[in-house]
Amino acid sequence: MARAPLLQLSDISLTFGGNPVFSDLSLVVQEGDRLALVGRNGSGKSTLMKVMAGLVEADTGRVVTPDGVRVGYMEQDPDFAGFATLGDFAGATLDPADAWRVEAAGEGLKLKLDAEPGKASGGERRRAALARLLAEAPELMLLDEPTNHLDIEAIGWLERALLDSRAGFVLISHDRAFLSALSRGTLWLDRGVVRRMDQPFGAFEGWRDKIWEDEDQARHKLDRKIKAEARWAVEGISARRKRNQGRVRALAELRADRASQIRRQGTAEMVLEAGQQTGKRVIEAKGISKSYGGQVILQPFDLRVLRGDRVAFVGPNGAGKTTLLNMLTGQLAPDSGEVILGTGIEMAVFDQTRAQLDPEATLWESLTSDPENRVSGHSDQILVRGQPKHVVGYLKEFLFDEAQARAPVRSLSGGEKARLLLARIMARTSNLLVLDEPTNDLDIETLDLLQEILGDYPGTVLLVSHDRDFIDRVASVTVALEGEGRAVAYAGGWTDMQAQRRERAAEPTPQARASTPAAPAAKPKAQPAKSSLSFTESHRLKALPEEIARLEAEIGKLADLLSDAQLFTREPVKFRKATEAMADRQAKLDAAEEEWLALEEKAEAG
Question: How many helices (H) and strands (E) does the chain have?
Fold first, then answer.
């Protein structure tokens, strides 16, 4: 006998502020379903999940849950009133005999259960809500962005916990690797309609693109039919007025059908434009270290970042990723060692706390408050990569409508705040992009676009992320903070790093090599001469840093001169000579840095 579904939504309609979110929406969640719920930011995924949980009442339709089936929802903003600790909140609904479940979830999610709710961060409060849901173990779990505020280790633990669970679940996440590992089916919410594919998330993009292709073909055929019928109406209706009123009505119905079709939302028009080219060497860190209160955050660490590199920083929360990033960009001084920044750096920063956004300011004010983006005498325009553009027009490029321009930042969703911050960054040119957790809250399509523009960006990128798939797609170097202040650089992305770690773990330890019986002594062979520098090369290696510093100083002075927008019209000859000198010094700087790198590597090899 077939079992009743865990949850059934029938003919759900919901309207917020006059705009329909859903209309006649129906779906069924069966026992054993593990569904990824995907859709664009603002499509209503979180609202739909709240309808499923019974937290939002639909205007029409029914939500049916069979007797005995518990539906659990991970609260985004839980109420901790009356609870002394996060652990008390997480275990409030459990019998004392089941308290171990909260402890297990807290350990896996790296949650301090004895922390006071009033002193806990937003991320800790969300993890407490997730720990409570996992400990309650309902038959159906509704998980809205559970990986936000989790580091990669905790994400891995949550993956294993959900795979081992017997519960069904519906999951919203921006993390492709997480969705691919867990889903058995996919729900796609698009323009108020839910489509279901009984395949894992990995097959989603091909399925979505085929639906869009079929939709475009059907729209094209309809447009051609309307055009043909309209031509007939103009040319032939006067001769056959009485007999063909039905055909005229049919034409009106075709036009009404076409007008009722909801146009799908496009992608944001993101553009990253590089400013002046930096030198070959962007960042050189030599023996940098950092400690706080006797705790070692970073042991002496070396890193060389060259122009065009994409460096990802990974590790547990609190390991020191942001601290290392701040030292590398000159925002924080190391306790020991030095950081040398290259020439002509124009840095743009995307911070994970969105601290650059004032929650009380409007979107309009968020863009026009930056002095570098203002257009003198025009309060409704900003400079976008040197060109004036209307504020509303620029916001529309990032998928904000005109009504949102005067709305406060606090009214935006997490994904919308991320898009607004990207709009601020992309309004100006840069050649060093610092991205601290940029993937949080962004939908799949926007992540795809961000990945593409980072691929085409001629500048250098420093990236902190817990999104393994995004790191694989973007990073050329991955720096892992492995605990106790140890940082190790690996070539490639997350998957490459894991493979290199496995190879390193498979190598025999010195103790194992010592316990292996010695092989019979072989006849000694002539050893090749070690690579070393000649006297001239050694002298050159010592002289190059001073030469590089001199060229950087000259380039800086020329850049200041050329920053005068009136120089070209006022003194064209001086402008031409300065431009030629800038190109000459930049070429000499690149050559000097290349020579220094080659000699340094030769010296290290010797």
Answer: 19, 21
pLDDT at res. 268: 59
Backbone φ, ψ for residue 187 (5° rounding) = -105, 125
| Cβ proximity of 301 and 480 under 8 Å | no
pLDDT at 524: 44
Total-model pTM: 0.71
- Where b means 16+ CB within 10 Å and e means fewer, 470-483 reads bbbbbbebbbbbee
**How far is Cα 535 from Cα 599, in angstroms, rounded to an integer?**
12
SS3 for 128-176, per residue?
Answer: HHHHHHHHHCCCEEEEECCCCCCCHHHHHHHHHHHHHCCCEEEEECCCH
List the Cα angle 432/435/437 in 5-degree steps.
170
User: In the structure encoding, which two tokens stand for residue 377, read together?
Assistant: 């005498």
DSSP 8-state symbol, 18: T
Is residue 74 within 8 A of residue 133, CB to CB? The reply is yes
CB neighbours of 583 closer than 8 A, spacing ≥ 6? none
| CB distance 54 to 199 below 8 Å | no
> 334-350: buried (b, 16+ CB within 10 Å) or exposed (e) per residue?
beebebbbbbbbebbbb
Residues 310 and 287: their CA atoms lie apart, in Å, by 21
Q: How far are the Cα atoms of 127, 530, 554, 605 from residue 525, in angstroms, in the given order?
A: 62, 15, 52, 21
Q: Which of 429, 341, 305, 148 is nearest to 313 (CA)?
A: 305
* DSSP state letter for 330: T
How far apart CA 497 and CA 508 sit, in angstroms, is 19
- 3-state SS of 363-376 is HHHHHHCCHHHEEC
Cα–Cα dist 20/242, whole Å: 40
- Please report the sign of the dihedral spanned by the C-alpha atoms of residue 473, residue 471, residue 163, residue 56: negative
Per-residue pLDDT at 262: 52
Distance from C-alpha of 530 to C-alpha of 106, rounded to nearest angstrom: 54
Q: What is the pLDDT of residue 455?
A: 84
C-alpha to C-alpha distance for 493 and 477, rounded to whole angstroms: 6
**What's the CA gap between 269 and 339, in Å, rounded?**
35
Residue 7 near residue 35, CB atoms below 8 Å: no
Task: Report residues of the chain scoring pLDDT below 70.
Answer: 1-2, 17-19, 219-220, 222-269, 352-353, 371-378, 508-532, 535, 565, 605-606
**pLDDT (tens digit, 9 = 90+) per residue, 461-488?**
999 988 899 999 899 999 999 888 899 9
- The count of other CB atoms within 10 Å of the CB of residue 75 is 17
Give the pLDDT score at 209.
86
